[in-house]
Amino acid sequence: MTAEQEEAAIRAAQADPERFGPLYDHYFTTIFRFIHRRTARRELTADLTQQTFLKALLGLARYQPRGLPFRAWLYRIALNELRMYWRKRKETVMDLGWAEAKILADEVGIAQQEEEMRMLSSGLGRLAPDQARLIEIRYFDGLSFAELGAVLGITEDAAKMRTHRALGQLRQYLARTP
User: Fold this and answer.
1) Exposed, middle or buried by CB within 10 Å (0-12, 13-18, 19+), for 118?
2) Are the C-beta atoms of 91 and 150 separated by less than 8 Å?
């Protein structure tokens, strides 16, 4: 979906909620994967994805693009749904796939051997939840810094700075891991 098509679909859905279908169809898989990576449970993921799109539909009349893609707004809603769920459960999950681990390993400058990847996983587990969330959204979900900022409610520059700090912390953990 091009930016122009997305904009037209948003306007159509804002005028008539029954026309939300193309937006739902286009973003469902992306949002489902985003949530599933953090829950690792299919039924829970389906429930939280449904809640995300329901809240998006209900809030669509108030949506304004402000120069950022619609998906950043959806990610923010999904992240809020996850936060509410995990706040009740007092736990978090991070599903680190090989492709995402490879990208992150390149970013922090480690070899992609089994032992180094184990160290990376361990280092990620030691990060503060907010730092881990930055790493996840930026490197595992592939959002730009502008989108990351929009999802977290911070500026693009703040997103860059916080991500840089989180990567620095992760590098420190990797340097200390035997």
Assistant:
1) exposed
2) no
Residue with tokens 């994805």: 49
pLDDT tens digit sequence for 35-87: 888 787 899 999 999 999 999 999 998 888 777 788 889 998 998 898 888 77
Alpha-helix runs per DSSP H in 20-92:
21-39, 42-59, 70-89
Radius of gyration of the chain (CA): 17
Contact 52, 78 (CB under 8 A): yes
Q: Give, in degrees to the nearest 5, the angle at Cα 107 between 164 and 68.
A: 60
What do you get for the CA distance between the two ends of the chain, in Å?
47
